[in-house]
């Protein structure tokens, strides 16, 4: 696992060259995680990318297919990188490192956990520690029956109040064969939404 080298407060190299925007991409356990590789490729052409995967998402995404310069962190890294008091805590380091976080796909499970403040894995610990002066986007993906459940609306309202930006799901034929809303927005739409909205502060480079 690559070390998380410095915090986002230290945004210039020694040469005073502006550093690239730092994007933390995260995937949950949805079939849409098969598109995570494409998302990583789009973002890594613009920004420095680190990735976080939940345990369930690893059933759908192929670690080996991710761009070579994208480090993927899992729950195992959280614990293997911490041995004693004084060691860095991975979820806090990644929270400091990132300028932007994008969770795509966001599962119903992780949506509910974020809405309720639960933090029992690397991804949700980062979100629970998030600094809401920095953008955090979510692109939900779930079956229409889950999407239409009243809990989804309740949880989306709760995360909106926190300052999390929704990249809306779309209506189409889902992987399971059902037709309806709940599919993840296309990776190109997710990338464009984040890229166009990002306004770098004067301290953090060209954007
Ligand atoms: C084949 C399969 C596909 C699934 N697709 C989705 C999905 O699209 N959206 C969703 O919210 N959950 C989906 N699930 C259920 C989640 O994987 C499950 O709730 C899991 O606990 C999510 O964990 P995570 O939020 O930590 O990633 C799927 C499960 C299976 C077995």
Automatic annotation (TrEMBL):
A GO cellular component annotation in the UniProt record: phosphopantothenoylcysteine decarboxylase complex
Pfam families xrefs: Flavoprotein
SUPFAM superfamilies: Homo-oligomeric flavin-containing Cys decarboxylases, HFCD
Keyword Secreted: no
Cofactor(s) needed by this chain: FMN
Keywords noted in UniProt: Coenzyme A biosynthesis, Decarboxylase, Flavoprotein, FMN, Growth regulation, Lyase
One GO MF term: FMN binding
GO biological process entries: coenzyme A biosynthetic process
Pathway: Cofactor biosynthesis; coenzyme A biosynthesis; CoA from (R)-pantothenate: step 3/5
Ranges of residues in domain Flavoprotein: 22-192
Protein EC: 4.1.1.36
Superkingdom classification of source: Eukaryota
Stored InterPro entries: Flavin_trans-like, Flavoprotein
Recorded family membership: Belongs to the HFCD (homooligomeric flavin containing Cys decarboxylase) superfamily.
Protein's name according to its UniProt entry: phosphopantothenoylcysteine decarboxylase
Lineage start: Eukaryota, Viridiplantae, Streptophyta, Embryophyta, Tracheophyta
Gene name in the database record: LOC105038731
């Amino acid at each position: 696992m690559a070390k998380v080298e410095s915090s986002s407060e230290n945004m210039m190299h020694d040469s005073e060259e502006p550093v690239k925007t730092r994007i933390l991409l995260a995937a949950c356990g949805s079939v849409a995680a098969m598109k995570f590789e494409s998302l990583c490729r789009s973002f890594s052409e613009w920004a420095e990318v680190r990735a976080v995967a939940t345990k369930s998402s690893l059933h759908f995404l192929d670690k080996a297919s991710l761009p070579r310069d994208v480090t993927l962190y899992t729950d195992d890294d959280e614990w293997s990188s911490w041995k004693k008091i004084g060691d860095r805590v991975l979820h806090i380091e990644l929270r400091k490192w990132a300028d932007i976080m994008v969770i795509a796909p966001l599962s119903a499970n992780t949506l509910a956990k974020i809405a309720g403040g639960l933090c029992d894995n690397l991804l949700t610990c980062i979100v629970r520690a998030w600094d809401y002066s920095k953008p955090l986007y979510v692109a939900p993906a779930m079956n229409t029956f889950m999407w239409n459940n009243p809990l989804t609306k309740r949880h989306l309202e709760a995360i909106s109040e926190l300052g999390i930006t929704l990249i809306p799901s779309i209506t189409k034929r889902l992987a399971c064969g059902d037709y309806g809303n709940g599919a993840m927005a296309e990776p190109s739409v997710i990338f464009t939404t984040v890229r166009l909205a990002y306004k770098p502060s004067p301290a953090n480079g060209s954007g």
